[in-house]
Amino acid sequence: MLEEGKVIEAQIKNEQFADSYEKIKSSVQGQLTIMGYDLASDGLVDTPDRVARMFFSELFVTDIDLKDVLSVTFDEGDREGTDDLVAMSNIKFSSWCEHHMLPFWGEAFIAYVPRERVVGISKLVRLVRAAARGLNIQERITHNVADCLDEYLSAKGVLVVTRAVHSCMIVRGVKGFSEQLTVSAVKGLMKDSGTLRSEALSLLGLA
């Protein structure tokens, strides 16, 4: 968190970003004033600055390319004829709903059948969190992770499941507090073989 704070501080002092930061801060000040809040109060005096910094940290568009997350892979040899699975459960992530600019959060579950190469396990976590960055929808995150493993790792089969709670449903609209959205994306052998898909779901603790 300390390092992240230093990065944000450097960004807002950078001439390229300073104007954007001031515009965001001014916009927040204007919105709070329109809604009748006293910006001189102890609790709100620094709120426009905090919100502007949060936007820089969480929402600013970056040039992250998901395939770069998988740039380092390891040779597993010829796996032709084998359907061995690699599975990782409970990958925590958070993102921001692009419809209401409110956060949602949950877990991702990944299983894939390697062809010749595998990726370091930490990269699966990084891949999910990179896909979740910025304004998003859960369906896109899920499919982008699956597409990346399918295309850039050349996995023979991919299964990605995400489950998330959406605050846009909690604080507005139906005000649902216990509902979760579940999304899946299936590629290759995972789509073709019900037996393999069932094994993957069992390994992930989803069956």
List the helices and strands and how they pair.
Blueprint: H1 2-13, H2 15-34, H3 47-58, H4 66-69, E1 73-75, E2 86-97, E3 103-113, E4 117-119, H5 121-131, E5 135-136, H6 138-152, E6 157-166, H7 167-170, E7 181-188, H8 189-192, H9 194-203
Parallel strand pairs: 2-5
Antiparallel strand pairs: 1-4, 2-3, 3-6, 6-7
Given the structure, what is the number of helices? 9
Strand order of the largest sheet: 5-2-3-6-7
Low-confidence stretches: none
C-alpha termini separation: 36 Å
* Major sheet summary line: 5 strands, mixed
CATH superfamily of the largest domain, by name, is GTP cyclohydrolase I, C-terminal domain/NADPH-dependent 7-cyano-7-deazaguanine reductase, N-terminal domain
Q: What is the CATH level 1 assignment of the largest domain?
A: Alpha Beta
Helix content: 40-55%
The whole-number mean of residue pLDDT values reads 89
Question: Structurally, how many domains make up the residues?
Answer: 2
Proportion of residues in β-strands: 15-25%
Give the CA-based shape.
Answer: elongated
Which class do the helix and strand fractions yield? Answer: alpha+beta
Q: How many strand segments?
A: 7
CATH fold type of the largest domain = GTP Cyclohydrolase I, domain 2
Order of helices and strands: HHHHEEEEHEHEHEHH
Domain GTP cyclohydrolase I: 25-203
Enzyme class: hydrolase
GO molecular function: GTP binding; GTP cyclohydrolase I activity; zinc ion binding
GO cellular component, one term: cytoplasm
